[in-house]
Structures are given as structure tokens and as C-alpha cells.
What we know:
Layout: H1 3-6, H2 15-44, E1 49-50, E2 56-59, E3 62-65, H3 66-69, E4 75-80, H4 92-101, H5 105-109, E5 113-119, H6 123-133, E6 138-141, H7 147-150, H8 157-161, E7 165-167, E8 170-172, E9 181-187, E10 193-199, H9 209-214
Parallel strand pairs: 4-5, 5-6
Antiparallel strand pairs: 1-10, 2-3, 4-9, 7-8, 9-10
Amino acid sequence: MSAQSLVELRPLVSRVDWLAARRQLLAEEKAMSKALDALAAKRHALPWVRVDEDYEFRTTEGVQSLADLFAGRGQLVVYHFMFGPDWEEGCPSCSFWADNFDRIDVHLAHRDTTLLAVSNTSVEKIEAYRERMGWSFKWVSSLGTDFNRDFAVTFTPQELEAGGVDYNFTLSAFPSTEAPGLSVFARLAGGGVAHAYSAFARGLDIFNGAYQILDLTPSGRDEGDLPYTQAWIRRRDQYED
Length: 241
């Protein structure tokens, strides 16, 4: 399929008219940027909740606590990667997200922040899939703990059948026992760990650079006619061309 057939043509105007339209949009973009800055400030000021549970994560370096995962830094960002204990592969959408945040951990480390992924499956499955995908970020197992359930990304089949789970801070239907999410933690000065922030669903969009790029194009994400959002996504080694 040619590139032209993918994009509905827009009106063709002079450069002068284009600049006028672009400057008008720029004014709106600047206003949105200021609004997002104000929203980020409110996010930074959210109160915290102390984490009292002694979670143990299986890693390639042995068993580690939540505090250990900080790797000596003050902030920890956890991506909840959908990968159930009986699954043979990680979620294709989460894999799309991981392609976008792989290898940024070294930059975050210089801002006192550790980034890693956590999944409700075995370390062996995680490592096999990570090798297949070619990723380098740290990825640990929460299998056998309440971590995923406590942070609202793992549900029982019975909960799904009942028609409602607590996801994205609301009771709603959900199609899978595993869900994507992002949780942020901070180390407390006197010792211990606090939960500072969580995001789910469209709140994860900002974590995906490919979507941010698509949002700049005329066709945008071009998902309106699909049977469901992200139906086009494949694991990076499964696209046909």
C-alpha cells in the first residue's frame, strides 16, 4: 500500500497561509504545555503512602526487596508488564511500550531514578522473552507475591467473571487477568519505601515515544476503524514487512 493511500489529503495552501495556521496552533500548544506543567506540579506534590508489605522479587541477581530495587537511588519507576504465569509470551502492547523505554535507564539514573519492569511470571520466562526481544532494562518477577494485586494490575478469573475489577481507580470490566500500569516509589529518609504515584490505561501514553511521534502526523494513530485500539500492534519480530 502506497504512503499516499494511507493519508487523506488536506487543503493545499500557500506558505503564508500555512504559517498563519501553524502560528495559531502554536499558541494553543503553548497554552497546553503550560497547563501540563501545572498538572505535573500537582502530580509532584501528591501525598505518599508508606509501603508496609515486605515484597520479595525474583531477579537474575537473586531475591531482592522493593527497597533493593532502587539500586541506591531515591526514586523507583516500575512498569507493570503484562505477562501471566501461564503465558508463553509477553503482551504485544506492553512489548510495544518496552521498545520505547529500553535503554533510557542510564539517563534516568543520572536524575536519581531507577526504571525497571515487573511481571507476574517466572524469571526464566522473563529472561527468555527479554533475550528474544533484545532488551537491556532490568526486569524482575513478582510471581508468588501480592505486589501486582496490591497495585491493581493482576486479577483473578472470578473477579473478571463477576464483571468488575478495580482498574484505573474505578470499577470496570477488564478482558484479562493481567493489566498494564506504572507505579512510582520514593525512599523515605528514615528508611522504608513510599508509594507516590500510579498511572494506567491512557495515562501510560506519555511513556510511549512512538505514539507521541504518530500524534504529530496527519493520520495520527489511525486507530478509529480498528476492531479495538492497538489491534494493529505486533511484537517487533512478528510484523510481516
